[in-house]
User: What shape does this take?
Amino acid sequence: MRHNELRRSPKRPVLWGALVVAGAMALAGCGGGEPEAAPSPSSTPPSASASPAPAPKEGACYNLSYEEALAPTAGGTAVTCKGKHTTQTYAVGRLRNVVDGHLVAVDSEQVAAQVAAACPNKVTKYLGGNADDLRLSMLRPVWFTPTIKESEAGANWFRCDVIGIAGPEALMTLKGNMKGVLGSSRTAEPFRMCGTASPKSDAFKRVPCSLKHSWRALSVIDLGSGKYPGEARVNKAGAEDCKTAAAEVADDPLKYEWSWEFPSAKQWQGGQSYGICWAPA
Assistant: This one.
């Protein structure tokens, strides 16, 4: 089964995981296969003329391309948030790049781990709502550091931005300030996660609910923690809850469709111990 999933390189955030799919017409389930992963973007080497980059400002907006948003180092010039933009900075922090009294490179594992932990922890507070509201949206955090040359010249910051995914390799054009947009159903609706077809279909693409769609992500189902229990058990663990959720929104609770996405063993090991329940829009 082919899915259009968006991934970053191992040191970069995963915009969302490619989940295994099980779906049903009425109450009959069927399993899905592993989706294909999009290739990881390559880093752009720093310019030979790079100078110390000033610390970004929280709340600043940028009109970055898809590739620029996935790059590990910061780029772009701030633009007015009232105009066209694709990212907004929700947090700026200071790098801890001294370990045991030694300065470590800005592209080191230590620095990457610090930023990868800090930015996701701050995004929900900025956008509003809770972790499940974020998971059911097309909004995702991305983060940037200075280039090596900029770091050597004294730049010691990291930048956390929020982006919206419009589809495969495409960013949403954001409007105004993103602060608090997931805090109410009215402002969250344009950013909610929908699909162009059933998640078990080859024609399935994730899109924001503001675009044409036929399926909708209904709920997030937490599957616990610990060792991966196996695909069959993970599927079964969330299927009943998903069927119940789909029945609640169905015109006919005795005949309805649903589709249940659950994590693979690899995704579970990476910390993704939840699945997403879908139903026709």
About this structure: The CA atoms of residues 29 and 268 lie 22 Å apart.
